[in-house]
Specification:
Layout lengths: L1 E4 L3 E6 L6 E6 L1 H11 L4 E4 L2 E2 L2 H12 L2 E2 L5 E2 L4 E6 L9 E5 L22 E5 L8 H11 L5 E5 L10 H12 L4 E5 H7 L5 H11 L3 E5 L5 E4 L5 E4 L12 H15 L6 H5 L3 H19 L17
Parallel strand pairs: 1-4, 1-10, 2-8, 4-6, 5-7, 10-11, 11-12, 12-13
Antiparallel strand pairs: 2-3, 8-9, 13-14, 14-15
Helix pairs in contact: 1-7, 7-9
Length: 312
Amino acid sequence: MILCCGEALIDFIPTPDGEAYQPCPGGSILNIAVGLGRMEVPVGFLSRLSTDIFGDQLASHLSTNAVDLTYCPCIDGQTTLAFVKLSQDENEEPQYAFYATGAVDRDMEIADLPGRLDEIDLLHFGSISLLLEPGATALETLMLREKRKKVISLDPNVRPTLISDPVVYRRRFEKWTAAVDILRLSEVDYSFIYPDVNFEEMLPKWFDAGLSLVILTRGEDGATGFLPDGTSAHARPPRIKVADTVGAGDTFFSAVLAYLYDHQLFDDRKKIAEMRVENLTQCLAFAVKAAAINCTRKGANPPYRQEMDRDI
């Protein structure tokens, strides 16, 4: 089973006329869990969920999409909310305003962490849940505890409005990259974290630290994957009419993990690092197609397994 560890929140998405907002289940970690569930991959979610009306909405959404809630205690308190601003330029990423003070997922503590994770093959981390305290420290503690015991993936999904000191964030990011096996970054993420360092210069450092696979996503230009031996592969998405790009990166990465699960590549991190270029290319092509399908509809709405067999 894959265990997605982090935030579940409500995204308020503008209605087509721009006159109101529609509340939709969201959060990068939740989106990835839902994407995996729709791909029929065994997946669980680790977070606190609120007992308020939004928490009920999130729990229902996760359960409906075959996500195991064993690691989700229900706590009295509020749910994290995010208001989304969509750009008129389909190539620009949405902007978010977060309201998380006192929210139950943000207030997760080390004492809330589960003990043995015998049934878990991979743990996924990322996004705002690694930024907002005390939950960020609790999840980082779990990541470091399971380092090299489980395969670990990271998609930082950087939100600059929540980062007061980029230098401090960079140091923390480097601690994470020394603990994880699979890293996905968008070009926007990378340029924020390392504005003055060429991407290719970082690859040897990351692989020396223990990473097995690095993926850089480039929006409509597709995605490139890199392996420790210098192998790389690229895939471009199909041409589509974009509705919006909310959740595209999350859908992409859930499809990457689904491909690795389908091909039994993450039961041993060496299998990921030693992946053949044909497998890496197929993995990226599968993932960019999933992200493209997501972008043909409003909000974070990853495809179901059967949709992946159809032409877009």
